[in-house]
Design goal:
Thrombin, subunit H, three-stranded antiparallel β-sheet, about 80 residues, 7 strands, about 50% strand, four-stranded antiparallel β-sheet, mainly beta, globular
């Protein structure tokens, strides 16, 4: 599960199963990523819990819908590229 957004000459993907977002070239080569898979089921150091959606605006901000935990409020995180 995840989402994809267009980013210049590439795409940005929310990689829910690996707790990260990835920036890929149009040929599928990984150019960069943010976040990482958890080291354990109780890993609290994750940048993303379960990134479900991603979008970009005209000011180079990336917004990520993060469903960290079903029992807590969902988060919208953003950062600049």
């Amino acid at each position: 599960m995840g989402d994809v957004g267009k980013l210049g000459e590439g795409i940005i993907v929310s990689d829910s199963n690996n707790n990260r977002i990835q920036i890929l070239s149009m040929k599928g080569k990984v150019k960069a990523y943010l976040g990482q898979p958890p080291t354990s089921l109780k890993d609290e150091s994750l940048l993303f819990g379960l990134p479900m959606g991603v979008t970009l605006d005209g000011d180079s901000r990336v917004f990520v819908a993060d469903n960290r935990d079903i029992e807590t409020v969902n988060h919208i995180r953003y950062f600049f590229l």
